[in-house]
Amino acid sequence: VQLGAIQTLFQNDFSSSTLPSNVTLVGSANISNGVLQITPNSLSQSGGVTITAGGNAADTLSVGFDLIVPQNGADGVSYSYSDDGVATVDPNMNSENGTGSKLKLAFVAYNAGTIPTGGTTAGLPGIYLMYNCSINEQNSTSAGVLAYSGDVSWRGSATPRRVTYTVGPTGKFNLALNGTPIFTNVQLPAAYVSANKSSWYHIFKGRTGGVSEEHSIDNMIVQAAQIQSTPTPGRNISVTPTVAGTYTYYLVG
Predict the structure, then answer these.
(1) DSSP state of 90
(2) What is the pTM of this model?
(3) What is the DSSP annotation of 127-145?
């Protein structure tokens, strides 16, 4: 198959306090000092952000954002990509564990140490890649957890950490943190690959409790490309990205 041109569906450095109409903030989320702050470094805060960037079935997807968590506190922050997530507080799922039944990335800073339903050991801080995971306070072996990393270098520094992920048309997921690979070619379920994701949206959620930390994002970009047609055998395919970086392209069929 042949990939069409890469389209930028969303891009914002949050330097303006006036947000576009496809960005909705709830709870403690606000623009502060040129970044999109999901929660401040205060106790008992919950915030959420919904970014609607549809219009493309997203056979390939590339998402990047700066993650800013200056303290080593609690509880964490998540990114979700789905058509059924909510940015508001969900009594059945803590905000740092994501939302909806589709793709979720959880940056968990703190875990209460309990054994979640369906798990065998208490969850640990780190990064969780999930798809259709309905278990709150998940661990690395919970149903719906596709990959886990104990990397917590994304917290405890005022210096932003660049989070980038790509998904190709066959559903291979790759995540890097400041250019260092965290998850490589993790296979997403067939349900993701076959879904028309033009109506899906991006959700950030964060939470603090009796211990706090700031959760902010900056410099977000969402890009996508669609399968266009089947090329004639033997012909070359040329794809030129519009933004500098490292990309993975897949040819199937």
Answers:
(1) B
(2) 0.86
(3) EEEEES---TT--TTSTTE
